[in-house]
Write a structure and sequence with these properties.
By secondary structure, this protein is an alpha/beta fold. It is built from ten helices and ten strands. It folds into two domains: 162 residues, Rossmann fold (3-Layer(aba) Sandwich); 102 residues, SIR2/SIRT2 'Small Domain' (2-Layer Sandwich), CATH 3.30.1600. 37% of the residues lie in helices and 16% in strands.
């Protein structure tokens, strides 16, 4: 495996040429993670200097009304932030590679929807998305805009820029959410859950199969901005390795897939994707 040293200019590094050699002339499956969206202003919770957090589990969401209220406040603020973000040049580079017939499909661990907004078409959102919510009792689905409107109607403070107090780490302070009215299903009154995969929750089998098909249909795998700390992504890298596909990983810092990679670039994701897109099209 060849590795770019930290801090090396991505576009000038010789290893970028090695990555191009590994990928050129092959159809590519792309796997992306949070490190790709940091240049759009969305935090990477696993990178160096990232704030500590306690992710919501499915069990806590379903079984603890107080934690469910707190989650909905934070999720609503996150949804508003995601709605205001824009795809960066890395997202656009991958969409351009798909247009050129180089990228045959894309699997993302992100829930921000930025790949679709950038123009990528064959996208599997492995961990779901924030565009909708589903009733856990009857399966009724609704758009996130509808849920947001109900949240702000029933909790007017959530509609104000300064209506919710944030702590210095960007977290919501307790007094801001303990009396929040959370939305429920308007059909049966059941618990509404955003269409994201919570910590400890299994990725839906349909999403797993779709992601596997993207890897199986490709002749190389490009990982961008993922530490591969979550097994759902690492399994796809292992699947590519078993098929003998060239694997290129771009990420700041080590990943759990580095030993499987033909080329590992410890470099900025967006600028490296731009360089690769320029060389491959």
């Amino acid at each position: 495996m060849t590795t770019v040293e930290p801090g090396a200019p991505a576009c000038a590094a010789p290893e970028v040429s090695r990555a191009v050699e590994a990928l050129a002339g092959r159809t590519i499956a792309a796997l992306t993670g949070a490190g790709l969206s940091t240049d759009s202003g969305i935090p990477d919770y696993r990178g160096d200097g990232s704030p500590r957090r306690t992710p919501m589990t499915f069990q806590d969401f379903v079984g603890d009304p107080a934690k469910r209220r707190r989650y909905w406040v934070g999720s609503h603020l996150g949804w508003r932030t995601f709605s205001a973000t824009r795809p960066n040049t890395g997202h656009l580079a991958l969409a351009g590679l798909e247009d050129a017939g180089v990228v045959s499909g894309l699997v993302t661990q992100n829930v921000d929807g930025l790949h679709l907004r950038a123009g990528s078409r064959r996208v599997v959102e492995l961990h779901g998305n924030m565009r909708g919510a589903t009733c856990l009792a009857c399966g009724t689905r609704c758009a996130r805009e509808e849920v947001a409107a109900r949240l702000e109607r029933d909790n007017p403070a959530l509609a104000l820029p300064d209506g919710v107090r944030l702590g210095p780490d960007g977290d919501v302070l307790p007094e801001s959410w303990e009396h929040v009215a959370v939305p429920d299903c308007q059909v049966c009154g059941g618990i509404l859950k955003p269409d994201v995969v919570f910590f400890g929750e299994l990725v839906p089998a349909e999403q797993t199969r779709a992601a596997e098909r993207i890897v199986d249909d490709a002749e190389a795998l490009l990982v961008a901005g993922s530490s591969l700390a979550v097994n759902s992504g690492l399994r796809l890298v292992e699947r590519a390795r078993r098929r003998g596909l060239p694997i290129v990983i771009i990420n700041r810092g080590a990943t759990k897939g580095d030993r499987r990679a033909h080329v590992k670039l410890d470099a900025g994701t967006t600028e490296t994707l731009e360089a690769l897109a320029s060389a491959l099209t």
